[in-house]
Amino acid sequence: MKTSIITDTTALLEAANILQQGGLVASPTETVYGLCANALNENAVKNIYKAKGRPSDNPLIVHIADLEMLSPLVEEVPPMARTLMEHFWPGPLTLIFKASSFVPKVVTGGLDTVAIRFPSHPIIQQLIKASGLPLAAPSANTSGKPSPTNASRVIEDLEGKIDAIIVGDSSKYGVESTVVDTTGEVATILRPGGITAEMIEAVLGSVTIDPAISHALKEGELPKAPGMKYIHYSPNAEVIIVDGEESLVISKMNELIVSAHSQGKKVGVLATDETKEHFKADLVISAGTTKNLTTIAAHLFEALRTFDDADIDIVYSLAFPKKGIGNAIMNRLEKSAGYHIIKL
User: Fold this and answer.
1) Are 302 and 202 in contact (CB under 8 A)?
2) At 174, phi and psi to the nearest 5?
3) What is the DSSP pairing of strand 135-136 with strand 61-63?
4) What secondary structure letter does DSSP report for 99?
5) Per-residue pLDDT reduced to its tens digit, 267-314
6) Domain residue extents for the chain
7) Angle between helices 13-20 and 122-131 (to 10 degrees)
8) Three-state secondary-structure class, residue 342
9) What number does CATH give the domain 4-214?
10) Where are any strands of DSSP class E within the chain?
11) What is the crossing angle of helices 326-336 and 293-309, to 10°?
12) pTM over 0.70
């Protein structure tokens, strides 16, 4: 398959036509690049799973560009969902609703609920409007790999497998959207992201966090949202997180680096601006400063992919504060490490 690389983002008719004909188009969004298909075309959606190598019980998020597109997709809009929509849409927030019969089961992963987002990025908004379609769109990468935050990583993974890739800017947030289930008595966060628990609590008064966020799902447990069940965000290198007081972490990581080098391994370190000079590894990458966790979120996935570019065998990573967007950072990092954490 020849993949069209679209660099003129003011002329999206080609991409819209591809979507109307059941094809696949990768587009920038404010979170990560998304792999889009007509959410109402079962075969098109199946091709998303095929192109990504994604398990079919992993639900997809449906993207809309105005509130009129929401009604046919859901049975009802609970009051808490309406409040969240008023405050955070368009933006990096996905809401779980009871699905209408209009939504194919292949989109919902066999569940009776559907995940819906109204993105703020102008390109995907224009693409939805030009095609006139709600778009199912997971991250535009090979399943299991770190999500792409720039077009070059999409091309690396999906060129020759999909119809078109729209080249836009680097993603603002760098981590996928927050997912909130609004079908119960209380709003429940199923995946942390750019809209933090603190922000949601400020408008709703209360919010719960699904315990599955911090551990792997048990055998037979269905994922309620994307990213909950399978290995995600993983570079080829083994990732190990070292968590504790900073000076102890630096000392321990340098011991681990020496040990790995003695076994002939190439070693990477995911550090911060404040700590990067302390490590003697083959490749040290600063994800940003702990004074601004949003910079770390924006650079996390690209850092993990850069370790693969350098054929690193093992990556030792600092832990980051679990506050605000730090919860999203650690959720992605813990999954990339398969929950392999050394606590000091």
Assistant:
1) no
2) 80, -5
3) antiparallel
4) B
5) 999 999 999 999 999 999 999 999 999 999 999 999 999 999 999 999
6) 4-214, 238-343
7) 50
8) strand
9) 3.90.870.10
10) 4-6, 25-27, 34-38, 61-63, 93-98, 113-117, 135-136, 164-166, 178-181, 188-191, 208-209, 238-243, 267-271, 283-286, 314-318, 341-343
11) 20
12) yes
- Token look-up 């809309």 returns 64
Among 37, 55, 62, CA closest to 232: 55
Beta-carbon neighbour count of residue 341 at 10 Å?
15
Fold of 238-343: Rossmann fold (3.40.50)
| HSE-up of residue 24 (Cα within 13 Å, Cβ side) | 30
Beta bridge partners of 26: 35, 165
Residue 109, classed as helix, strand or coil, is: coil
Which is nearest to 39 in space by CA: 127, 179, 133? 133
pLDDT digits (tens, 9 = 90+) for 231-244: 678 899 999 999 99
Q: Token pair for residue 89?
A: 């849409």
Is cis: bond before 90, omega within 30 of 0? yes
What is the distance, to the nearest Å, from the Cα of residue 321 to the centroid of all Cα atoms in its chain? Answer: 19
**Can you tell me which residue has the tokens 């055998």?**
219
